[in-house]
Amino acid sequence: MAACIGTIDVNPGPADFTSTEHQHPRHGSSISQRPDSKHVMFPGALKSAFSNTMRFEQPSTYPALPTYRIVDQHGVVVDPSFSPDLSDDEVVKLYRDMLAVSIMDLIMFDAQRQGRLSFYMVSAGEEAVSVATASALAKEDVIFCQYREQGVFKQRGFTLNDFMNQLFANRKDPGKGRNMPVHYGSRELNIHTISSPLATQLPQASGAAYALKIQRMQDPSVPPRVVAVYFGEGAASEGDFHAALNIAATRSCPVIFICRNNGYAISTPTLEQYRGDGIASRGLGYGIETIRVDGNDFWAVREATKKARELALQDGGKPVLIEAMTYRVSHHSTSDDSFAYRARVEVEDWKRRDNPIARLRKWMEARGCWDENKEKEARDSIRRDILKAFSEAEKEKKPPLRTMFEDVYEQLTPDLKKQMSELKSQLERYPDEYDLADFEGGRDSLVK
Amino acid sequence: MNGASIRPLSRALTRTSLPWRSSAPAVISRSRQYSTHPANAKLNLPTDYSTTPLLAHSPESALSNPELPPEARNGTTKRMNLFQAINDALSTALAEDESVLIFGEDVAFGGVFRCTSKLAETFGGDRVFNTPLTEQGIMGFAIGAAAEGMRPVAEIQFADYVYPAFDQLVNEAAKFRYRDGACGRSAGGLTVRMPCGGVGHGALYHSQSPESLFTHIPGLRVIMPRSPLQAKGLLLSAIRSNDPCIFMEPKILYRAAVEQVPTAPYTLPLSKAEVLKQGSDVTIVSYGQPLYKCRAALEQAERDLGISVELIDLRTIYPWDKECVFQSVRKTGRCIVVHEAMVNAGVGAEVAAAIQEDPETFIRLEAPVARVAGWSIHTPLLYEAFNAPDVASTSPRLLRGMVVAC
């Protein structure tokens, strides 16, 4: 792939060549081998020591990168240096965010099953990864999600109405009824709208981070900002992942790559996805500071993200990789039945053994800021609020039809105006063949 | 420099001292194994860029262009080839807007075609820089930067290598604004430059002209300039445009096409075709390098057949200026579309379909719309002269168009 020849002679005609002065690329002297050097001085590996033993490195001889945790499955703090940096109320707020996402997931999954929604994706088992990482970011930071990060939206202030308006693609949906459910986006919250193709968001995050870096260089009054970008371990097999890490490293971009390693890419288990030491080992290969954390440990994820943000802003900016280990308790989406490829008992075991919500709850209960009554009250009120937002959104009109032609270009092109009026005549000619009832303004919106 | 271990950029840099720098291209081309027409050809003569009326050979002709703003028209001109005009536009863009970034493979030292010469030195390595060798990465990076308010001008070293970036262009750049809806963000600041087209010896992977793959994608603007003056104005328009633009540069023109170019900054309109020569009997629609062949062919046909030919440069290939083409064809009643890329599902198909679909234009047609384009094959090394449109393949179409009409 890519430019193999590098250049090509163009036209030998009577052109003006005078301005094409000779330019000699760097001569080799700066990287030449000094006599008796103990280290390789090739341009591609400046610090490599010579060896007279031929040995191929065995990945298996390297220990797996450790998984950082602060609180164990029982809610007990295992990192003695840890002290929470949030008030009890703040923790409760974040816990409620996780709870809200998990309750909304159950309701919406069922709603899809009842045919009231075309599609849905739950994030059961991964609530801590999204809520805790988001909690460690600044409001001005820019976020690119994959599609299983509703906790990020919730933590940053996306309301239940915002979720429902998008899911029902009604006239209040900022996506204007163009995107499948769960493709949320918010300019106010600095979260880019979700795009279905996997990993495309990763090099975009590198470029966005470079933009933030340059903007701060050009105007030091802009606050320091980072980009956070989410993806699964399956997406990390895409070329875009590798391109993103490499380009972020070479351009020193302040970006935090957050991998949700949940064990499955739809049906494909990690064993069939990769053979290295997870995704974290790749960060090192690209020269990127990397940590692996227990993704079910709210506090570990939050502390790691806090530190990652600090690192990302050091030395003029640099990328950081976090691999959060977790387990996708749910099916991939409403279009998937995961018991076709994994045992029900495996899932039940996981749910019983460890759950990010249960783990934070145990910690909170041990601390004395949460109990059974509060849990029940929270669950009931969240459920009520969701159902209220649900029924409001479901009743709303759909966006006007003309929306389908808008935003392709900054302005409607002559072609699109013409096509819009063609559609209008078609609808006038065959009024019984199209259902316009739900669309705001009916066919009259199709005017130039 | 030890060229063996690194991609051989040095060859591009030492080329000015080679003997073929002088004129008499046909002879020298053969000695360098270019695919060319024979020395005794009567129709397929080498394009003489020093006399073609498509280039402004004097300051007066450059400054008389009515599309230029008064500042440019009342200013001075400078002789530039295509890469110098591109360089001039890039330099202007960097100077006038600090959100402009320029990057791609080998861009920092000036680019393998010299389009980015001196830009890194002048504007700094933070704004003009090399990327790793990853087209999908370059494109994703550019889209992300555009989405956060920058105006990236990304270079793909050859159009032949844009395919790894296809997903980012089609699924991301083109859809960004549509997907974001009321949030209002877009990748509109993005401009992607890429050299395209044959040069006589580029073969399968240094000759392609994949514009029609992008003209199928709503959301993108696809532009191909024919000359240095056009390139400067269209590129500045593309960079300032709030829609993502694909800017394809016919690389054979980088050095060959030289003309007087206004020194002041100026833009030329996007999605607007230009009538290069008025005529009454037949319309030729083309863009990029084949315009020079069309110009030679129409001179031949006007001389031999006594007909009058209108020549249109689409300039922006999508969304394209249908009205300009329709008006011309309503007048002439005949149309030939000429492009270098493969004939199948190419731009010619779209133009021909649009002409016959427009009732007012269709009833004026006196002959079927013809296409002169590359065969439906890849671009083989030795056979370019038998593949790309030339005078001998274009001029008989003019004749045939007239015969059918009679």
UniProtKB/TrEMBL annotation, chain A:
InterPro entries: Alpha-ketoacid_DH_E1_comp, DH_E1, THDP-binding
The family this protein is said to belong to: Belongs to the BCKDHA family.
SUPFAM superfamilies: Thiamin diphosphate-binding fold (THDP-binding)
Domain of life: Eukaryota
BP terms from Gene Ontology: branched-chain amino acid catabolic process
Cofactor(s) listed: thiamine diphosphate
GO MF terms held by the record: branched-chain 2-oxo acid dehydrogenase activity; metal ion binding
Function according to Swiss-Prot or TrEMBL: The branched-chain alpha-keto dehydrogenase complex catalyzes the overall conversion of alpha-keto acids to acyl-CoA and CO(2). It contains multiple copies of three enzymatic components: branched-chain alpha-keto acid decarboxylase (E1), lipoamide acyltransferase (E2) and lipoamide dehydrogenase (E3).
Localisation per UniProt entry: Mitochondrion matrix
Known EC number: 1.2.4.4
Annotated region described as Disordered, given as residue ranges: 13-35
GO CC annotation, single: mitochondrial matrix
Catalytic reactions of this protein: N(6)-[(R)-lipoyl]-L-lysyl-[protein] + 3-methyl-2-oxobutanoate + H(+) = N(6)-[(R)-S(8)-2-methylpropanoyldihydrolipoyl]-L-lysyl-[protein] + CO2
Record-given protein name: 2-oxoisovalerate dehydrogenase subunit alpha
Organism: Canariomyces notabilis
Keywords: Metal-binding, Mitochondrion, Oxidoreductase, Potassium, Thiamine pyrophosphate, Transit peptide
Limits of the Dehydrogenase E1 component domain: 96-400
TrEMBL record, chain B:
Pfam families: Transket_pyr, Transketolase_C
Catalytic activity of the protein: N(6)-[(R)-lipoyl]-L-lysyl-[protein] + 3-methyl-2-oxobutanoate + H(+) = N(6)-[(R)-S(8)-2-methylpropanoyldihydrolipoyl]-L-lysyl-[protein] + CO2
Keyword Signal: no
Residue ranges, annotated region (Disordered): 29-74
Cofactor section: thiamine diphosphate
Enzyme Commission number(s): 1.2.4.4
Protein's name in the database: 3-methyl-2-oxobutanoate dehydrogenase (2-methylpropanoyl-transferring)
Protein's organism: Canariomyces notabilis
Taxonomic placement: Eukaryota, Fungi, Dikarya, Ascomycota, Pezizomycotina
